[in-house]
Structures
1.
Amino acid sequence: MTLHLFDTYARQERPFAPLEPPKVRLYACGPTVYNYQHIGNYRTYIFEDVLRRALEYCGYEVHHVVNITDVGHLTSDADTGEDKMESGSRRTGMTAWEIAELYTRDFQQKLEWLNVLAPHVWCRATDHIDDQIAAVAQIEEKGYTYRTVDGIYFDTSRLDDYGYLARLDIAGLQGGQRVDLGEKRKVTDFALWKFSPEDEQRQMEWDSPWGKGFPGWHIECTAMSAKYLGSHFDIHCGGEDHIPVHHTNEIAQAQACYDTRLAEFWLHGAFLQLDGEKMSKSSGDFLRLESLVEKGYDPLVYRFFCLGARYRAKLSFTWESIDGAATALNRLRSAAHGWGEPGAADEACIAQFKERVEDDLNMPRVLALCWDLVASDLPDAVKKATLLHFDQVMGFGLAEWAPQEEEIPAEIQAMAAKRQQARTDKDWAVADQMRDEIAAAGYEVEDTPDGPRVRPLKS
């Protein structure tokens, strides 16, 4: 079997093979750190984590890079509006640099909550301004740019296949435009470098060959991915909202700079929907991971919930579905913990697991296989080893999980000690009386080779 992945560029599943085996170079678009991330954002990072785990499971050496957008992302994808970092600074009263640090740290912490593996490289846009300037200069040298009053723009008319990733209807977009383009020549043209407004002091601006300003959003990913992974690498990931603009423009820049489409595979995760609509930060009203934790859910419940749907299928959030995921994850954890020490994994189950992972990361079918395993007649030690094998890709941390020990009140402990002393003295009447009193208080005593164990009565 071979890992098959759905390549957005080709619009079909294709067998995956690294460009330079056994190495796999993987780039994932990171967050714009002007605010907290909502749970819909984290769905994409969970999908990308499953992808990385699957690649490593298949024996590849993955080099994983994620960017942090801390400058250049305007409030409109049409290169209008305010920089989101400047807007966030005004909203919070902190500097743009301070909010970048705050929201980056929060984002990274939440990935840890979700058991998402950290990338090998975090790259911030503001740490790579020179790389972006160099990329813009190379694009300019090759004749793909023009200058307006507010910046240096990419001339998309120079590319015959511009928009192929998104299958854009360029003529339709141009003919149906209802916006003032200013000095932009076409609606699809985009900013490579924006000039600082003369009547405004920006917190983040740099000198360049074209004047003081800041990079456009798209150039950062082209420049940084090429810096760390080369001008043609294996896989580029992101959310499906990146397809028509951001990733389309990354590819255009790479065609101008390197004569490549940047990545061999382009993979995209679908939206999380709330009440039938895409979850978004723009309204200011969105669910954070803390929203689940405050209601008593383990963050990994959300990971389990996300794996219940194909990564490229829409997924609707409801509290009922989160309840279901919580129940299911607890059941799986309890089963695995109760099976004791692992033995040898079942090869037939592993073969089925590989087939489902290699089917474009079909995690719903992997979860179904978990429940088949739980219900099977295989020995407990075999079940445990097999499930832990699956968890290399699922990422639930089943090997480390143990039920939380509830603190036993001192008076119950005293009653248990009195019962144990009565048993030692062979005073069975007192021992039975203490057992009954402990049970009446909502606890039970289990006699084990290591001594009595007190625990709450099962409801």
2.
Amino acid sequence: MAQITKSYEPQEVEKKWYADWLQAGCFAGRADPARRPYTIMIPPPNVTGVLTMGHVLNNTLQDILIRRARLEGCEALWLPGTDHAGIATQAVVERELRKEKKTRHTLGREKFLEKVWSWREEKGGIILKQLQALGASADWSRTQFTMDPAYSQAVLKVFVDLYGKGHIYRGKRMVNWCPGSLTALSDEEVIMKPVKSLLYQVRYERADAPGQFIEVKTTRPETIPGDVAIAVHPDDPRYTAWIGKKVKRPIGPAADIPIIADAAVDKEFGSGALKITPAHDKVDFEVGQRHKLAPIDVLTADAKLNELAGPELAGLDRFAGRKKAAELLKERGNLVKEEAYENNVGYSERADVPIEPRLTWQWWLKYPRIEEAKTAVRDGHIKFYPERWSKVYLHWLDNIQDWCISRQLWWGHRIPVWYAK
């Protein structure tokens, strides 16, 4: 006769009963017209991931709802799956390749994708196994993967449908660019981090009045070769006589750049003058568009200074270029001072490197009219607790922008567009 253990040993007991439940089809969702359907589509966790406390909480709530639906007589289906996690998965595999002194480019696209699929087969199901170990009552026989053929076909169909309706378009706009993964990112993939840096006070000499200077403050002197103007507020009396004049660009290719008036300038920050570098700052890009100023891109895709930055800076990494630019400004008498400065810098969520605002051709999803969503809150149909969050919500909707949906990756869904050379 089998002995009962003195203490509960969950490893064997839970494994046995969970296997019995699966064998009996206890979690299977079956179409039955006679019963009310109840379905939960699991928010697919990344194929690269492992369970976090957030996952456990979220899935526990789903499990409670699906089990209650079964008890109420519904035909319940909890559909599990995993997300291919384009940037995260590619970054993991590329990190492994670097250990072998290889890159995706040395392998080529086909061999690289074989490597990614192999990695996914080996390690991609960890998070689902962890959910099973917790007793999650999902219908595992229907497990989906966002790179499955049927899923991929659905993605292509929706893309073409939305493009045909005018909701998707291609445009050259400013994006969050990851120099590590070499791809555009959405705003949601950028993590803001406080960073201790330096604020450089730089002076620009009037082209028509030697010895007269206008000063600006910047954290990025390496982008000065990309300056196309200096902006001041139109109502700032300090600079009324300067508007329309030109100043000399202090480093990089020699050029005289105009002083323009724009209400986007904060009169209270620094000297009240702002260097305008449209290719490397979102606000500057908008100012440049308003004043029809052509952008000058002085950085490569991997954040090195290019030939447009001038021979003294070309080829340097952006951070080495920052140090060199400060040295050049000091040598030429244009660096007024440096001061310690703490500001928030956007980091790539997956590659964990500072992102670059970059002007590139991308595919965008237009946001639909959202007046109804705002009205529902203003009229009290939807209430926020605490109430202050309603202001945050409305501010977000008032400032929402089109979504960048294209990525420069080898792993993931490919946009169904072909370009004629």
3.
Amino acid sequence: YMTLWQGLLTDRYDSLDELPVWRRRTRQFDARKNELSRHGEPGAEEETWKAVLAVRRIARELGSTTSELALRWAMAAPGVSCVLAGARARQQLEANAAAAAQGLAEEVRRRLNGATETLKARLGPSIDYFENPANDRTR
């Protein structure tokens, strides 16, 4: 779900504030800063940005773009058989297809999982990132 994380894993944005406001409606972002949010939570912006930077750092170490690594990471997750990623241009589509064709070493997958563990713990087990966990629509 949200493989490229509302665009944060595309190397396009240099801060969370650059992300369009309509993409900042998820629980990672402070609902008090966005009238479009309906989750009502304070968000996890510090943890989110640290996770983004960690994934970017790992991508650079591997000679990859962040979006390519994010797609490979999602594809390498146990139990995942399909990954959705939008593309607005042929170049993006081709890059997505190329990334999907590559594997991901287990050690890299573990590093990525570790780099995002603090954020995952902060957000908890609810996978509905647009709603408060009390209103989780996925149960």
